[in-house]
Design goal:
The protein is α+β, with helices and mostly antiparallel strands and about 375 residues long. It is built from seven helices and nine strands. Helix 1 packs parallel to helix 2 and helix 5 packs antiparallel against helix 6. The protein is rod-shaped, with a radius of gyration of 65 Å.
Length: about 375
C-alpha cells in the first residue's frame, strides 16, 4: 500500500507498506501452475508468427509444385491430343487442295491414332480412285478423239439434233454435202436454214412418226431418201449445182437427242440412170440396125436387076436413088454404131460353145 511521508526533503520519496501472509500450499501450487501456463502461452504466442510464415511458405511451395505439375501434365497430354488433330488438320488441308499423297498416321492404340490411320487409308483410296478416274477419262478422251477423227473423215454427213430439230453438232461431211457451214448455226433449227426448210421439216416429221411407231413396231431407226434442189431451192451460199439425192437414216440418242446420218447418192443414181439409158441405147441400136442391111441389099439388088434395062434418064435416076439409099443407110449405121458405143458392154470372153444349142436358141 503506498504511504505518504511527512519528512522534509529535497525530493519526495515513495514509501510502501509490505504486508505478508502465509498462503496455503494448494493455492501456491495453483498460482505457480497458472504462472507457468501463462509463460508457455507467451512463448507460443511469440512463435506463432514464425510458424504461420513457415506454413504459408510450405503451402505456397506445395501449390506452386502442384500447378507446375498440372501444367506439365497438361502440356504432355495436350501434345499427345493436339498432335494427331494437327496432323489431321494438315492432311485435310492438303486433300482439300488436291494433294492425295500418302499421309502420316499415328501408331498408337487410342481413338485418335485409329482416326489418323483411317484418314490415311481414306486418302490412299481417294488417290487410287482419282487415278482410276483419270485413266478412265484418258480412255474416254482418246475414244472421243478417235470418234471425232472418224466423223471428220466420213464422207457421209452426221448431224445431232435436239428435240425441236435444233442443230447440236455436225461433222464436215454434212457441211460439204448440204453446202452450209452447219457449225456456224448450232442451236438453230435445221428447218430455218435457207434452202433446207423442206429437208428439215421432212426430217422432223420422220422423227415424229418414228417415235410414235417405235414401241408398236419395235423400230430402232428410220430410213428415207430425199431430193434437194429439184425445186430450184438454194442454200445461203448459193444454189445447188445439181439435184441432190440423199438417203438419210435417223435414230434416237440418250438424252432425247436425235442422230441424223445421210449420204449423197446422186452419183449412184446417175450411174444407175446412165446404165439404164445405156441398156436402152443398146437395145434400140440393135433394133434399128437389123433392118438397115436388108434395105441396103434390096436397093443394090434392084439396081443390079434393072441395070441396062432402062433408058438413060431412068437409069440415071435409079443409080442416083440407089446411091442415096446406100449412103443414107451407111450414115444410119454409123449413127447407130455411135449410139451403141454409148452402152458398150465389156469385152467378150471367148470360150467354147455348143453350136447346136446356140442355133436351137436362135430358132426358138
Amino acid at each position: 500500500v503506498p504511504l505518504t511521508s511527512s519528512v522534509l526533503g529535497l525530493a519526495p520519496e515513495g514509501r510502501f507498506l509490505l504486508v505478508s501472509r502465509v498462503l496455503p500450499p494448494n493455492l501456491l501450487a495453483n498460482a505457480l501452475a497458472v504462472e507457468s501456463a501463462y509463460r508457455e502461452y507467451q512463448e507460443r504466442a511469440l512463435g506463432r508468427e514464425g510458424l504461420k510464415r513457415m506454413y504459408l511458405g510450405t503451402l505456397a511451395l506445395s501449390l506452386f509444385l502442384a500447378v507446375f505439375a498440372a501444367v506439365l501434365l497438361a502440356v504432355i497430354l495436350g501434345d499427345q491430343i493436339v498432335r494427331p488433330l494437327l496432323m489431321l488438320a494438315e492432311g485435310v488441308s492438303q486433300v482439300a487442295s488436291g494433294d492425295l499423297t500418302p499421309k502420316l498416321a499415328m501408331q498408337g492404340n487410342d481413338e485418335l491414332g485409329g482416326l489418323t490411320r483411317a484418314f490415311a487409308s481414306m486418302t490412299e483410296q481417294l488417290a487410287d480412285a482419282r487415278h482410276a478416274v483419270q485413266q478412265s477419262m484418258s480412255q474416254v478422251d482418246a475414244a472421243r478423239a478417235n470418234l471425232q477423227t472418224i466423223l471428220d473423215n466420213l464422207t457421209a454427213g452426221v448431224i445431232v439434233l435436239g428435240t425441236q430439230g435444233e442443230i447440236r453438232s455436225s461433222n464436215p461431211g454434212a457441211a460439204r454435202i448440204l453446202k452450209v457451214p452447219l457449225s456456224d448455226y448450232e442451236g438453230q433449227p435445221l428447218a430455218t436454214l435457207d434452202g433446207l426448210q423442206t429437208f428439215g421439216t421432212a426430217v422432223q416429221s420422220q422423227f415424229a412418226d418414228f417415235l410414235a411407231q417405235r414401241n408398236e413396231q419395235g423400230l430402232d431407226h428410220w430410213q428415207k431418201s430425199f431430193e434437194l434442189g429439184a425445186d430450184g431451192a438454194a442454200t445461203l451460199h448459193g444454189p445447188f449445182d445439181r439435184t441432190l439425192t440423199l438417203v438419210a437414216r435417223g435414230a434416237e440418242l440418250p438424252g432425247n437427242e436425235r442422230l441424223l446420218v445421210f449420204d449423197d447418192i446422186s452419183d449412184i443414181v446417175s450411174a444407175q440412170r446412165a446404165q439404164a439409158w445405156g441398156e436402152v441405147a443398146r437395145r434400140l441400136a440393135h433394133e434399128i440396125k437389123n433392118p438397115l442391111t436388108p434395105i441396103q441389099l434390096s436397093a443394090e439388088r434392084l439396081e443390079m436387076k434393072l441395070n441396062g434395062k432402062l433408058l438413060a434418064p431412068e437409069q440415071a435416076i435409079l443409080t442416083k436413088s440407089v446411091k442415096t439409099i446406100v449412103d443414107q443407110v451407111d450414115a444410119m449405121k454409123r449413127l447407130v454404131n455411135d449410139f451403141r458405143d454409148y452402152a458398150r458392154l465389156p469385152a467378150a470372153e471367148l470360150k467354147p460353145v455348143d453350136l447346136n444349142a446356140l442355133v436351137t436358141d436362135v430358132l426358138q
